[in-house]
C-alpha cells in the first residue's frame, strides 16, 4: 500500500493466527494502522496489489479501525462472500468452502480521517499463505470443529463473544493434523480432585458416577470425530489438582488417589481415546523412575514450586489481567464454586463473619488465577499443537469452552457436584443435599461407595428371593440390569417381564446381562410370551439376524454385514385398510417391542447395534429444528425390497401409546450409493426436494449424534428389550462371514 505522504507509520497491528503447527506453513492476517496525514479532508490514494487468491476458511473475522478500509474491504470481499456482521469496528464473513478468484482494483481513492490510514496485509509466519489449500482436508477440519461445537458450554448471558477468532485459530490447528492424516490432539486441564465439601456438595473423595458420565461424554466427543475422520481424535486430560489443592485445604494424597481412580475407571470402561497427564509432565525436576503415592506426595510442593518458578509472569498483576474478559469469566466461576467448596474447610464462626468469608474467598480466587496463569502457560508450551479445550466460560478466542456433563443445570464439572439419573435417562447435576432432600430420589452405592442418586421406582426392584438386581444407567440411553449376586445366579426365567417391558417404554434399551449364559431357542421363544403377544412375520416368529451374503430372503440388507439405515422395525409389515375417504390403502403395522438375544458375542469394534431414543433426539436436533416444528409433517417411503412397498402419509411424529410423549417415526434415506442391495427412498411430504433433504439431514445428524446413539457391544447371552416406538435403531457394518448372530422376536 502506498500513500502520498511520507510520514513514518506507527504500528497498531492486531492479527489472527491461522497456522499453529510449527511444521506447517502458517500466516497471520494483520491489520495495520498508522498516523499519516494531519489534514482531515485530504484524500489518500491507496494502492492495492492486483492479484487473485483463493480462500477456503469457513469463518473470517478481523477488527479494522479505519472506516475507509472497513468499507472497501466489505465492498471487495462481498463480491464472493455474504457479510455476516458489519459493526463500527469489525467485519466478519461466513466463508464458503472455496471462494474463487477475487481481484482487487489497482488503485482506489478514498477519504482518510484525520490521523488515520490503514494497511491490510498478509504476513507469513514462517512461510506465507498458500494460494491454494487442500480443500478436502479443510472441509474435514471444518466438520471436526463443528462436532466440537456441539459439546460447547452454554454461553454466559451478556458475555462478549469472539468465537470467530477462535474458530479460525483452531480450524488451522485441526487442518494441519488432517492434512497429515494424524489423529486430532486435544487437551483439557480438568479433573483436579473432589470438592472438599462432602457434606452438602459431593459424595466423597473419589470419582463416582459423575466422573464416569463425564469421561463417557468426552470419549464420545473423540468417537464422534472418528465417525467423520477415521484417524479420530485423542484427548489428553491434564490434572491441575496440585496447582490449587493446598489453597483449598485438600491433601496431596487425595489428589493422587483421585487421579489414580480416574485412570482405572477409564481403563475399565474402555475409554481408549482419553489419556492423562499430571503436573509432573509439565515441569522438569529430578524424580524416581516410578512415581507412587509416597513419592508423588513427597514431591508435590516441588512440582508447584517448579511450575511457578518456570512459568509465572513477573509482571502479573490482578488490576491489569482483570481487564481481560476471559480472566473475569474464570474468576467469577471460581467465586461461585468456592462459596460452597470451602463451607466445610472454613465454617462460619464468631471470628469469621459472612463478609470476612467472602473476602477470603476472593483472595483465594485471585491466588488461583495467578497460579492458573502459570499453569496455562505451561500447557500452551507443552501442547502447542493441540486444540485447547476448557471447562471455564470464555469468549472463545483462545480456548473452546465445553461442558463435561450431559446436563442442563449450572453444574457441568463432576468434581463440583453430584448427579441424579431419572427413569427416562435424563441426567440432572446439583448439590448432594438437594437430591438427599428429594423424596423422589434414592442414593445408589457402587463399589461399596455412594455413587449417584436415582429416581425411585418399583421397576428397579425384582428378584429379591435370589438376591435382587442392580440397575445401571447407560450413557446416553438405556438401563443395564444384572443379578446382584453375580452372573448366573439368576436365569432367564427369573426375569420380571412386566417390569422390564414397562421400563423399556420409558427408557430403552433394557439390557439384561448374566441371565442367559447358554442361549437356547426354545427357552427364548417361551420367555417372549411373558412379555406380550409374539408377532410372526414372513420369516416366522424368530429371526436369526446374521450375515447371509447375497441371500436377502426378501429383507433387503437386514441379513448382510453392511451398515443399515436408522429405522424402526416393521415399517414394511403392511396391511390394506379402508381410509376415511372409503379408499383402500396400504398401511404399516409395526410391532410395539423387540426382544433380542445375543446367540454369539460380536466383535468389540464392529457389528454394533445402535439405539437412539426420541427423548435424546429431540434434545439434540440441529439449530432451527424442534419437535414442535416437525409435528404434523408426513413422509413417504419406497423400496424395491419388501414386495416393492410404497407407503405415503406416514406421520413423522407420533405420541407414545403409553407415556404420551412425542416419538420419531422415520426411516433414514438410503440411496444406492450406500448399499449393494436395494435403495430406500424417503421424502418429507408437503415441501420441495431441497427442504425435504434438509429436514432428513437434520434428523439423521441427531440420530447419529454420539450424545444420542448408544452403541451396544453384544456379549453372548445378552437379552435386550427395546420399545420400537420410543427408539430408532440400526446396525454398523462388520466382517462378512462373521459368526455374529442375534435372535429377534417382535411382540405387542
Structure, explained:
This protein is of the alpha+beta class and 748 residues long. The chain has 2 domains: 154-412; 457-747, Double-stranded beta-helix (4-Layer Sandwich). Helices cover 28% and strands 22% of the residues. It has 17 helices and 34 strands. The strands form 10 sheets. Strands 18-19-20-32-24-34-21 form a 7-stranded mixed sheet. Strands 11-10-9-12-13 form a 5-stranded parallel sheet. The radius of gyration is 30 Å and the shape is globular.
Topology:
Layout: E1 14-17, E2 27-34, E3 43-47, E4 59-63, H1 67-77, E5 82-86, E6 90-94, E7 107-111, E8 117-124, H2 135-150, H3 163-179, E9 184-189, H4 209-228, E10 233-238, H5 241-244, H6 252-268, E11 274-277, H7 293-311, H8 318-321, H9 325-341, H10 354-382, E12 387-390, E13 400-401, E14 418-421, E15 427-430, H11 432-436, E16 441-446, E17 449-455, E18 469-473, E19 479-483, H12 497-506, E20 510-512, H13 521-531, E21 543-545, E22 574-578, E23 584-588, E24 593-598, E25 609-613, H14 614-617, H15 627-630, E26 634-639, H16 641-644, E27 646-651, E28 653-655, E29 662-664, E30 680-684, H17 689-704, E31 709-712, E32 719-723, E33 727-731, E34 742-747
Parallel strand pairs: 9-10, 9-12, 10-11, 12-13, 14-17, 19-20
Antiparallel strand pairs: 1-2, 2-8, 3-7, 4-6, 5-6, 14-15, 16-17, 18-19, 20-32, 21-34, 22-23, 24-32, 24-34, 25-31, 25-33, 26-27, 26-30, 28-29
Helix pairs in contact: 2-3, 2-4, 6-7, 7-10, 9-10
Pfam families: DIT1_PvcA, TauD
GO molecular function, one term: oxidoreductase activity
Protein name: TauD/TfdA-like domain-containing protein
Amino acid at each position: 500500500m502506498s500513500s502520498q505522504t511520507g510520514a513514518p507509520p506507527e504500528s497498531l497491528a492486531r492479527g489472527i493466527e491461522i497456522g499453529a503447527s510449527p511444521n506447517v506453513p502458517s500466516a497471520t492476517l494483520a491489520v495495520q494502522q498508522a498516523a499519516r496525514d494531519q489534514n482531515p479532508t485530504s484524500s489518500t490514494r491507496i494502492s492495492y496489489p492486483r492479484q487473485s487468491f483463493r480462500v477456503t476458511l469457513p469463518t473470517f473475522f478481523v477488527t479494522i479501525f479505519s472506516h475507509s478500509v472497513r468499507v472497501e474491504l466489505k465492498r471487495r470481499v462481498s463480491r464472493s462472500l455474504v457479510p455476516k456482521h458489519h459493526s463500527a469496528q469489525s467485519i466478519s464473513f461466513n466463508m464458503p468452502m472455496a471462494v474463487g478468484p477475487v481481484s482487487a482494483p489497482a488503485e482506489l481513492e478514498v477519504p482518510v480521517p484525520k490521523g488515520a490510514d490503514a494497511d491490510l496485509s498478509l504476513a507469513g509466519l514462517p512461510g506465507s499463505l498458500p494460494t491454494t489449500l487442500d480443500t478436502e482436508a479443510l472441509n474435514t477440519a471444518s466438520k471436526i470443529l463443528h462436532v466440537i461445537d456441539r459439546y460447547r458450554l452454554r454461553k454466559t448471558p451478556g458475555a462478549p463473544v469472539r468465537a470467530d477468532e477462535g474458530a479460525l485459530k483452531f480450524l488451522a490447528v485441526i487442518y494441519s493434523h488432517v492434512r497429515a492424516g494424524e489423529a486430532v490432539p486435544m487437551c483439557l486441564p480438568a479433573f483436579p480432585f473432589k470438592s472438599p465439601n462432602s457434606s452438602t456438595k459431593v459424595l466423597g473423595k473419589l470419582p463416582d458416577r459423575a466422573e464416569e458420565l463425564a469421561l463417557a461424554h468426552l470419549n464420545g466427543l473423540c468417537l464422534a470425530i472418528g465417525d467423520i475422520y477415521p484417524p479420530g481424535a485423542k484427548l489428553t486430560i491434564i490434572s491441575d489438582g496440585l496447582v490449587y489443592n493446598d489453597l483449598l485445604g485438600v491433601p496431596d494424597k487425595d489428589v493422587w488417589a483421585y487421579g489414580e481412580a480416574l485412570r482405572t475407571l477409564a481403563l475399565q470402561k474402555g475409554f481408549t481415546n482419553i489419556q492423562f497427564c499430571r503436573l509432573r509432565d509439565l515441569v522438569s525436576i529430578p524424580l524416581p523412575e516410578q512415581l507412587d503415592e509416597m513419592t508423588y506426595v513427597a514431591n508435590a510442593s516441588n512440582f508447584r514450586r517448579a511450575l511457578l518458578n518456570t512459568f509465572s509472569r513477573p509482571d502479573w498483576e490482578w488490576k491489569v489481567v482483570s481487564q481481560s474478559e476471559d480472566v473475569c469469566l474464570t474468576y467469577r466461576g471460581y467465586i461461585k464454586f468456592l462459596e460452597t467448596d470451602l463451607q466445610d474447610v472454613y465454617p462460619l464462626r464468631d471470628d469469621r463473619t459472612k463478609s470476612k468469608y467472602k473476602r477470603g474467598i476472593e483472595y483465594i480466587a485471585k491466588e488461583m488465577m495467578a497460579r492458573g496463569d502459570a499453569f496455562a502457560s505451561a500447557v500452551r508450551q507443552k501442547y502447542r499443537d493441540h486444540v485447547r479445550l476448557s471447562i471455564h466460560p470464555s469468549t472463545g478466542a483462545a480456548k473452546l469452552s465445553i461442558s463435561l456433563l450431559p446436563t442442563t443445570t449450572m453444574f457441568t464439572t463432576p468434581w463440583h457436584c453430584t448427579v441424579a439419573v431419572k427413569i427416562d435417562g435424563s441426567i440432572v447435576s446439583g448439590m448432594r443435599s438437594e437430591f438427599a432432600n428429594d423424596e423422589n430420589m434414592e442414593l445408589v452405592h457402587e463399589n461399596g461407595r455412594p455413587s449417584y442418586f436415582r429416581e425411585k421406582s418399583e421397576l428397579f426392584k425384582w428378584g429379591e428371593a435370589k438376591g435382587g438386581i442392580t440397575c445401571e444407567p447407560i450413557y446416553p440411553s438405556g438401563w443395564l440390569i444384572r443379578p446382584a449376586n453375580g452372573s448366573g445366579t439368576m436365569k432367564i426365567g427369573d426375569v420380571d417381564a412386566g417390569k422390564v417391558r414397562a421400563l423399556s417404554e420409558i427408557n430403552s434399551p433394557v439390557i439384561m446381562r448374566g441371565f442367559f449364559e447358554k442361549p437356547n431357542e426354545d427357552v427364548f421363544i417361551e420367555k417372549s410370551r411373558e412379555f406380550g403377544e409374539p408377532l410372526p412375520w414372513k420369516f416366522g416368529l424368530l429371526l436369526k439376524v446374521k450375515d447371509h451374503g447375497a441371500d436377502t430372503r426378501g429383507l433387503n440388507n437386514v441379513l448382510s454385514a453392511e451398515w443399515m439405515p436408522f429405522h424402526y422395525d416393521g415399517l414394511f409389515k403392511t396391511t390394506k385398510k379402508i381410509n376415511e375417504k372409503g379408499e383402500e390403502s396400504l398401511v404399516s403395522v409395526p410391532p410395539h417391542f423387540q426382544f433380542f438375544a445375543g446367540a454369539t458375542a460380536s466383535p468389540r469394534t464392529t457389528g454394533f447395534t445402535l439405539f437412539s431414543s426420541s427423548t435424546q433426539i429431540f434434545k439434540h436436533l440441529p439449530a432451527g429444528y424442534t419437535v414442535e416444528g416437525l409435528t404434523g409433517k408426513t413422509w413417504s417411503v419406497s423400496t424395491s425390497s419388501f414386495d416393492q412397498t410404497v407407503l405415503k402419509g406416514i406421520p413423522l411424529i407420533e405420541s407414545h401409546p403409553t407415556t404420551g410423549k412425542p416419538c420419531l417415526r422415520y426411516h433414514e434415506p438410503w440411496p444406492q450409493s450406500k448399499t449393494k442391495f436395494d435403495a430406500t427412498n424417503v421424502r418429507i411430504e408437503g415441501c420441495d426436494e431441497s427442504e425435504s433433504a434438509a429436514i432428513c439431514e437434520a434428523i439423521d445428524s441427531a440420530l447419529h449424534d454420539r450424545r444420542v446413539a448408544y452403541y451396544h457391544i453384544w456379549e453372548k447371552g445378552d437379552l435386550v428389550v427395546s420399545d420400537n416406538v420410543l427408539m430408532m435403531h440400526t446396525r454398523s457394518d462388520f466382517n462378512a462371514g462373521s459368526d455374529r448372530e442375534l435372535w429377534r422376536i417382535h411382540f405387542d
